Amino acid sequence: MTDWSARDIPDLSDRAAVVTGANSGIGYCTARELARRGARVVLACRSEERGSAALARLFSDVPSADAALWRLDLGDLGSVREFAERYDRERGGRLDLLVNNAGVMALPHRRTADGFEAQFGVNHLGHFALTGLLLPHLLRTPGARVVTVSSMLHLLGNVDITDLNSDRGYRRWLAYGRSKSANLLFTHELARRAAAAGADLVAAAAHPGYAATNLQAAGARLEGRKVRETVMTAATRVVGQSAAAGALPTLYAATAPGVRPDSFTGPRHLGWRGAPTPSPRASWTRDDRVSTRLWEASEELTGVRYAYTAKPA
């Protein structure tokens, strides 16, 4: 893999894309570069105010962009269903690229609208439901891709199938790591099931390394811990690479030719920063038994069943 950059993104004219969490950071940069290369992009954002500001910024950066803002709250399965129903009504037909980018990090303990632990509910279950509901559009589009953004912090812990919602005790960083492992297990199982069904679909994952976004300080901000928020923000600006650089592994997984199913792309230098390259991952994120159990549990919890993919033998 050479020093791939956004300049290497191929022409995406007539391609349809959805990017979750596109109002800022990596998600915004991903949506912007897809639009710059001609894709028709939906910015799927929880906050309409922040999403509107991002859309205006995108049109300023890319005046020719074909982009729209749609509301999506991944912490509310009702909102996820409304988003998918709107896609059915207004876009129908094809969906070339779904980028499951949105996420929360190291939050104080809280629940989603449906009662799930927030990090597991938003980072994994919301995207699991969204992908399943949009899957018919992906499967009718030759060469479609689902790219899910994980993290090197998945190494903090494997999912605990017996305690998915951290009911036996909540530790914010462990819960975050488990949710990011869930992202990789989801990618692994979706790739397996697509292959078993003979579907022309690539499920891949990526991570940004350490990128300067507002994600790291979000937990401190929610708790009103101003000093910690200030320290985290300053450290991120000093150490992290730019959001645009952090988006490159996602853009590579989404657009580069020859991306393999169940691949994991990250920055070259120690997984921290640099051009996209294949990234190491924990062995547990390719465990067929665990990925199957997580998939089945996710179907039960969300009520979303993937009728278009077969369970591997």
Automatic annotation (TrEMBL):
Chain positions covered by the region annotation Disordered: 266-285
GO molecular function annotation: oxidoreductase activity
Domain of life: Bacteria
Identification of the protein by name: Oxidoreductase
Assigned protein family: Belongs to the short-chain dehydrogenases/reductases (SDR) family.
Keywords per UniProt: Oxidoreductase
Pfam family name, one: adh_short
